């Protein structure tokens, strides 16, 4: 079965977002087991957008309530994914959104307290923490 996956066991990557429902962009955060033995992962990653200096911008991602967590085993070299939905900042007024450039995604793999910075190609986000820009799903099989 393997032990629980740690941040050190995982390579975390993300594809740039694609269009989806009106006002939303979808992408996946991939977690690849770089270890030599299987490891277990379950739940939701912690995700937020950061500036080039690493400071968090706006609110952290909320969990997608329609996404069920499952206990998964990632074989050595295998990958699981979590879907990330980002709201288009253009749906908000400039004064409400307080737009700012985002450089990275700060990703905490499920059940870990060490984060990884992943380059973010999405550009601008809202810095107003009252606006929930990100929604993340639980990890699922497949890359």
Notes on the structure:
This protein is mostly beta strands. It has one domain (3-141): Immunoglobulin-like. It is 3% helix and 44% strand. The protein is built from one helix and 16 strands. It has one helix at residues 94-97, and strands at residues 3-4, 10-14, 18-19, 24-33, 39-41, 46-50, 56-57, 62-63, 72-74, 79-87, 99-101, 104-108, 116-119, 124-126, 134-136, 140-141. The strands form four sheets. Strands 2, 3, 4, 8, 10, 15 and 16 form a seven-stranded mixed β-sheet that branches. A four-stranded antiparallel β-sheet has the order 7-6-12-13, with no helix packed on it. The model has no long low-confidence stretch (mean pLDDT 92).
Summary?
By secondary structure, the protein is mainly β.
Shape: elongated
Helix content: under 10%
Kindly report the average pLDDT value.
92
Count the E strands: 16
Note the total helix count: 1
Backbone CA Rg: 15 Å
The CATH topology is given as: Immunoglobulin-like
Please write the string of helix (H) and strand (E) elements.
EEEEEEEEEEHEEEEEE
Unreliable stretches, pLDDT < 50, 5 or more residues?
none
Distance between the termini: 20 Å
Q: Under the CATH scheme, which class?
A: Mainly Beta
Largest sheet: 7 strands, mixed
Structural class: mainly beta
Strand content: 35-45%
CATH architecture: Sandwich
Number of structural units classed as domains:
1
């Amino acid at each position: 079965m393997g032990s629980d996956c740690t941040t050190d066991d995982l390579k975390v990557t993300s594809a740039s977002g694609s269009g989806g429902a009106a006002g939303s962009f979808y992408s996946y955060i991939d977690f690849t087991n770089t270890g030599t033995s299987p490891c277990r992962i379950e739940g939701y990653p912690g995700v937020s957008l950061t500036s080039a200096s690493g400071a968090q911008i706006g609110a952290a991602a909320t969990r997608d309530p329609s996404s069920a967590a499952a206990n998964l085993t990632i074989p050595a070299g295998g990958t699981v994914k979590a879907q990330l939905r980002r709201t288009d900042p253009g749906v908000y007024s400039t004064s409400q959104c307080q737009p700012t450039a985002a450089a990275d995604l700060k990703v905490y793999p499920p059940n870990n307290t060490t984060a990884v910075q992943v380059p973010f190609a999405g550009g601008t986000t809202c810095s107003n923490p009252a606006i929930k820009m990100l929604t993340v799903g639980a990890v699922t099989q497949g890359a």
